[in-house]
Amino acid sequence: MEAPILDKLAHLPKARQVRPGAWIARCPVHEDENPSLTWATGAEGRALIKCHAGCATEDVVNAVGMAMTDLFVTNGATALPKPLKPREVARYGYHDASNNLLFEVVRFEPKSFRQRHPDGQGGWIWNRDGIEPVLFKLPELRSADPRRTVLIVEGEKDVHRLQGEFVVTTNAGGAGKWRPEYAEELRGRKVAILPDNDDVGRQHAADITRSLFGIAADVTRR
């Protein structure tokens, strides 16, 4: 027997077998352009899962609608009670300059994130394939007084908390997912970066600062 989660993983985008008993696919937790999730069958059919970009195994399991107990084969024995399946708690829409919805970042509890885009028929496709990323709250950013400082934070929740009092934005995926092309939206603007107080946050701020050199009028970190 095999762990129940193995069939779910086999249906992830770009899933393919790399050798007998070992697979690779796009990780469902982060924006994974190059497949970085691997899994294999271990002793007694247990699923061995690893995201080489650093996502927690529990987040990967939750993102495919399974539980950690699904990594194991029960062989008819009474299984441990499954934890609650991920529950949607927030949706963050990313729009183009004309306010057309491009994609959403959906937040779940236990904490995980997935991205999806409209399928054109009233439903959703749970990836962002073929959709060019934009900054969060792009229409509001473009319409704001260009003399006002733009705050860049690490997550959509912080944008909602600060919006109204400040001009504020972020990028999908959080720290480590800043793209150089975002910088053009901030040309000539004063920018203040508010990173999380950890090594990942500080590196994220450094990446943004480098991309804005010679483009933004001024860049500070707070």
Write the layout of secondary structure elements.
Layout: H1 5-9, E1 16-19, E2 22-25, E3 37-41, E4 47-51, H2 57-63, E5 87-95, E6 101-109, E7 112-118, E8 124-125, H3 138-143, E9 150-152, H4 156-162, E10 167-169, E11 190-193, H5 199-212, E12 218-221
Parallel strand pairs: 9-10, 9-11, 11-12
Antiparallel strand pairs: 1-2, 2-3, 3-4, 5-6, 6-7, 7-8
Description:
The protein is 18% helix and 27% strand. The strands form three sheets. The protein has a four-stranded antiparallel beta sheet with strand order 1-2-3-4. The chain is an alpha/beta fold and 222 residues long. The model is unreliable at 76-80 (pLDDT under 50). The radius of gyration is 20 Å and the shape is elongated.
Class per helix and strand makeup: alpha/beta
What's the helix-strand series? HEEEEHEEEEHEHEEHE
Which blocks of ≥5 consecutive residues have pLDDT under 50? 76-80
Q: Helix content range of the residues, please?
A: 10-25%
Rg from Cα: 20 Å
Strand order of the largest sheet: 1-2-3-4
Number of domains: 2
CATH top level of the largest domain is Alpha Beta
CATH structural fold name of the largest domain:
Dna Topoisomerase Vi A Subunit, Chain: A, domain 2
Task: Please tally the helical runs, counting DSSP H or I stretches of 4 or more residues.
Answer: 5
Distance between the amino and carboxyl termini: 54 Å
User: Main beta sheet: strand number and arrangement?
Assistant: 4 strands, antiparallel
The overall strand count is 12
Please give the CATH architecture of the largest domain: 3-Layer(aba) Sandwich
Question: Strand portion, in percent?
Answer: 25-35%
What's the shape? elongated
Average pLDDT level: 90
